[in-house]
Every structure is written in C-alpha cells, then in structure tokens.
C-alpha cells in the first residue's frame, strides 16, 4: 500500500519505489493534476472519432521514469517536458503509441503508422493492403456493404492514408481529407463501436500482433527509448 502526500507544488509517493514497480492506475492518480485536458471529438493523430478517449503527452510511464521513485515537483516536470496534456485520441492510435514519448505529433503519428505499413517480413502483406484498397473502392462503387471493415487490410489503408497525409503535410486536418477517406473513417468508426473490445482486437489484427502484452525484458523500457 502506497501513501500519497501532496501539497501545492510537490507530488511524492511514500512506499515501494515506483522506479522498481510500475502500476499504471496509481501513476495516473499520482500525476493527474499535472495534465491539462485539450477538448475535442476527433483523434489528434488520425482524426477518427475519439469516443471520449484521451492520450497522455508525455506518457504517464515517462513521468514515472523521470520521478524515479522519489519526490518531484510540478515545476520540475514542466521545465523538463513543457506543458503536459491530455489530448483526444482514438483507441487504436493510443494502442499504437503505447508508452512511446515523441517530441511532436508528427513523431507520434510516425510511431503509430509503422504498425500498419507494408511489412516486408510477410510476403503476403502487399496483397493484404492491395485487397484492402480494392474493397474500399468497391464499397464506394456500391458493390460492397459494411462487411468490408471486418478485413484488417481495409483499416490499415484508412489509417495509413490519414496518418501519412498529416505527416507529409498533404492534410492540415480532417477538413482537408478527401471525401472517400472521411466516409471510410465514419463507417469504420460505426463498425468498431458495434461490439465490445472490437477496437483493441482490430488494432492487434492490423498490426499482426498476438497480444498487447510486452515481453518481460521490455516492460521497463518499452520501444527501447530510455537506453
């Protein structure tokens, strides 16, 4: 059991050093007042509906590492990381980021999209993406129904087009997306909401992951970003 002690500037935990054991729920409570919420209904990274979900910038785990189990002030955190924000974020982009700490939204989008781009380790992956694009075309022509979104290749086409377009500056925001992309995002959002835990499962299917659990050696340093 940890005892939380707070005053106007100081956030401290008395108990087992957090540098040795990370509990996300406790860490979120510990650092909650450091973050400022940015309102919005669309994911800041891909412009999908965020459905009330938010992403921590920087990740809570990064603040946990920074505090290193000891006393840290809000001023120290802000001096090191700048303003800490809770930004609108869809479930899939949130899972794509994990505990990654990018220096900009462009870097964060690049981290997310790498899960969905063609993977040369799988020779069939190019065909998966080609079929996803073809299914979207047939949906726009009225030849297919909403069942196309069951195929992970369709979601990958939607996410890669939105994310890379924003990364490369082709789009400044959702209003710049072509009509087909806005329609596809809207329909995908409806399909994802239709079943419990479908968003999380869809991310795993798109990213070719067996689970969202980190291997033991990676838990203290996800993405190897603290080396």
From TrEMBL:
According to UniProt, the name of this protein is: Uncharacterized protein
Q: Which organism is it from?
A: Sinorhizobium kummerowiae
- Lineage of source species: Bacteria, Pseudomonadati, Pseudomonadota, Alphaproteobacteria, Hyphomicrobiales
């Amino acid at each position: 059991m940890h005892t939380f002690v707070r005053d106007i500037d100081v956030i401290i935990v008395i108990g087992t050093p957090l540098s040795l054991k990370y509990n996300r729920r406790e860490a979120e409570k510990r650092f909650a007042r450091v973050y400022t919420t940015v309102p919005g209904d669309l994911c800041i990274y891909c412009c999908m509906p965020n459905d009330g979900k938010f992403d921590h910038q920087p990740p809570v785990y990064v603040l946990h590492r920074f505090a290193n189990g000891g006393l840290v002030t809000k001023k120290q955190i802000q001096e090191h990381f700048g303003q800490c924000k809770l930004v609108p974020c869809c479930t899939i982009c949130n899972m794509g980021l994990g505990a990654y700490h990018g220096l900009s939204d462009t870097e964060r989008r690049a981290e997310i999209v790498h899960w969905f781009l063609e993977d040369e380790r799988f020779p069939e992956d190019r065909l998966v993406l080609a079929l996803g694009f073809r299914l979207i075309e047939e949906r726009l022509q009225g030849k297919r129904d909403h069942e196309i979104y069951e195929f992970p290749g369709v979601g990958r086409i939607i996410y890669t087009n939105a994310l890379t377009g924003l990364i490369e500056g082709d789009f400044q925001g959702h209003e710049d997306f072509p009509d087909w992309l806005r329609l596809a995002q809207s329909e995908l959002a409806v399909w994802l909401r239709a079943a419990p835990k479908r968003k999380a499962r869809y991310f795993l299917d798109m990213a070719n992951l067996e689970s969202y659990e980190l291997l033991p050696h990676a838990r203290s340093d996800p993405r190897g970003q603290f080396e």
